[in-house]
């Protein structure tokens, strides 16, 4: 009984001292649930965890129906296996949602601990508000599971232990980085550089050698066995020459990427050695020809979140006595705080306030099609039909049922004729689209009608294959 009392006492103490962390956990969970219930789930990224784990339970490995191959051919994701076993208990999207909320909390916890140890109460309050309100950090909350999510959690704790001069614990966590994703060396290599910069040559050499060996095993053994040695994303770093690859670093998009990473924090990260821990990720993204990697809010940049946050704390401590810089900092932080609030209002609030008009229709359609019939569906609704033997986005119209969403978007011409209240609503929810969406719908409609019969005609269209009609 005394052990139970001690446990509850410790939990009460933890909650009392980590209220922000509790808020972050439940806010992340609320984001994930709201995004799914309002039919804003990313069919591709959620599919890579949810549907592949469901296929694992069915004995099909981590087969991706969307790509038509085992997802482990694409990425080195050992963490998919424990998720797969969770799906053996019960197949539900609650697992990826809970995992995301847990990992985001694990990322935030050491950052908040460092803030509490280094800053006074007033400074901790302002830092916490800015951290949680930052679009960069908030994107963690509504992004789906990627290897970078686990990598970021590990790096966050590595930074914490480095700040406590506990190199042994930091190195032990660094050894776990290969379990996150094949490009882990972009983080582990930066840890090696940090140790070297601090004059800890043995630690630097050990981490470097370990990282190189693990990388060779992944690319020269794992990918050879599972995908004939081919790595699907290597073409992102293709260039006709080394000079061309180097020159690709110098363009307006990549310069803007660097500014957007640093300016919201008043350039504070530049004044801390912890910034070195982001060198690998930044270099990887700058060398890439794929725009998503040097767009600051994508999952490719998640490991930079603890680096920038902690570097900002130490940069602030170094410069807080400089009155000129502090004036610049106040203006910069105020400006970006407003920008972050506007980003929430115009980009994220719809996840909570804009239920799709066809949610009730989806419930009726799910009753019609049942739990096992094969389905091809438009991308926005796919994740609501995922636990069935055959499931795919609309391709060849071979499934028993095909589900389409009738375009309800507003064209620029129609927008001009709307009353002001409707114009604001259309802008707020991003409903202004060109003719391309309707053209694509009409083309799909023609193909579906060749093999299927329309049996539901409202905001959603449900077609049943003609040979399966009674």
How are the SSEs ordered, and which strands pair?
Blueprint: H1 2-17, H2 19-37, H3 43-57, E1 63-64, E2 69-70, H4 80-89, H5 94-118, H6 121-133, H7 135-142, H8 147-163, H9 167-174, H10 185-197, H11 201-227, H12 242-247, H13 252-262, H14 279-287, H15 304-319, H16 323-348, H17 350-353, H18 359-369, E3 375-377, E4 391-393, E5 401-405, H19 412-416, H20 420-428, H21 436-451, E6 452-457, E7 460-465
Parallel strand pairs: 3-4, 3-5
Antiparallel strand pairs: 1-2, 5-7, 6-7
Helix pairs in contact: 2-5, 2-7, 3-4, 5-8, 5-15, 8-9, 8-15, 10-11, 10-14
Q: Care to count the β-strands?
A: 7
Sketch the major β-sheet.
Answer: 5 strands, mixed
The stretches of 5 or more residues where confidence is low (pLDDT under 50) are none
What percent strand?
Answer: 5-15%
Task: Describe the strand arrangement of the main beta sheet, using strand numbers.
Answer: 4-3-5-7-6
Task: Figure out the total of helices.
Answer: 21
Let me know the average pLDDT.
85
Q: Structural class, from helix and strand content?
A: mainly alpha
N- to C-terminal distance: 64 Å
Percent range of helical residues: 55-70%
How would you sum up the global shape?
globular
Account of the 3D structure:
This protein is mainly α. The chain folds into 2 domains: 2-40 and 93-350, no CATH class; 359-468, no CATH class. Helices cover 60% and strands 6% of the residues. It has helices at 2-17, 19-37, 43-57, 80-89, 94-118, 121-133, 135-142, 147-163, 167-174, 185-197, 201-227, 242-247, 252-262, 279-287, 304-319, 323-348, 350-353, 359-369, 412-416, 420-428, 436-451; strands spanning 63-64, 69-70, 375-377, 391-393, 401-405, 452-457, 460-465. The strands form 2 sheets. A 5-stranded mixed β-sheet has the order 4-3-5-7-6, with helices on both faces. A two-stranded antiparallel ribbon has the order 1-2. Strand 6 and strand 7 (460-465) form a beta hairpin. The protein starts with a helix and ends in a 5-residue tail after the last strand. The model has no long low-confidence stretch (mean pLDDT 85).
